[in-house]
């Protein structure tokens, strides 16, 4: 069992459409710096199957990234109803892949969101996808490959609830929380998750919130990486190495390896998620 990182950026990817600032100009000029919206795959090479956590608008390239594993898509788990986390579903329909009854695991409000959306509901009516409602804090054994459990996290829930996931393999377990408003009120949960698991992908949207001066930051709440690192500064070095910051905004200097922000994270003992990164869960 492997976890494979398919994307590390915020919903819009990097560079971000319409951005002409220096943060994105370097990536427009150097396509190798491109980063895809946050998503991970759970891969079982033996059974030739893989599952996605979140399906992004860049799924065309992200599926191509794991073609070498010669596995077929066996299911999708969605965290919430912000575009970078579900919009890739449209590629499963008649106009593109035309797949049949792909299991899509969602919380109740996320199911309602899909059913009430004419475009997405067409996927249900055409049997391209089959919705499965999951319950919070209830472990689900997936084909005897792994156990996955959704848990609620505080985030902007205009359209659906938001969950993180715990994925448990034979020997190791991982946490995936790409979006959360704040660690405030969640600290005890976070320290417990760090203690009880081997790999954690945590919201790293902003290095510092002053990197987006032209937006009302209260409308896009996320923890600052600098604050997260400060809160976790007393962890052992081994515990810090469990943490991979993911879902980096295009304004976040940590998305660019070699930047001062990136170096500070690494020097502080933490990690930044990398696309094509493969982590063993067996």
How is this structure best described in words?
The chain has 282 residues and is an alpha/beta fold. The chain has a single domain, classed as Ribonuclease Z/Hydroxyacylglutathione hydrolase-like (Metallo-beta-lactamase, Chain A), CATH 3.60.15. Helices cover 23% and strands 24% of the residues. The strands form 2 sheets. Strands 6-5-4-3-2-1-14 form a 7-stranded mixed sheet. The protein has a 7-stranded mixed sheet with strand order 7-8-9-10-11-12-13, covered by helices on one side. Strand 10, helix 6 and strand 11 form a beta-alpha-beta unit. The longest helix has 10 residues. It is globular.
Q: In order across it, which strands form the biggest sheet?
A: 6-5-4-3-2-1-14
CATH superfamily: Ribonuclease Z/Hydroxyacylglutathione hydrolase-like
Question: pLDDT under 50 segments (min length 5)?
Answer: none
Predict the CATH topology.
Answer: Metallo-beta-lactamase, Chain A
Radius of gyration: 18 Å
Report mean pLDDT, rounded to a whole number.
Answer: 96
Discrete helix count: 9
Keywords:
282 residues; alpha/beta; Metallo-beta-lactamase, Chain A; 9 helices
Summarize the structure.
The chain is α/β, with parallel strands linked by helices.
Could you give the topology of this structure?
Layout: E1 2-7, H1 22-29, E2 39-44, E3 49-53, H2 59-65, E4 72-77, H3 83-86, E5 102-106, H4 108-116, H5 118-125, E6 129-133, E7 140-142, E8 146-152, E9 163-168, E10 173-177, H6 187-196, E11 199-203, H7 225-231, H8 237-240, E12 243-246, H9 260-267, E13 271-272, E14 278-280
Parallel strand pairs: 3-4, 4-5, 5-6, 10-11, 11-12, 12-13
Antiparallel strand pairs: 1-2, 1-14, 2-3, 7-8, 8-9, 9-10
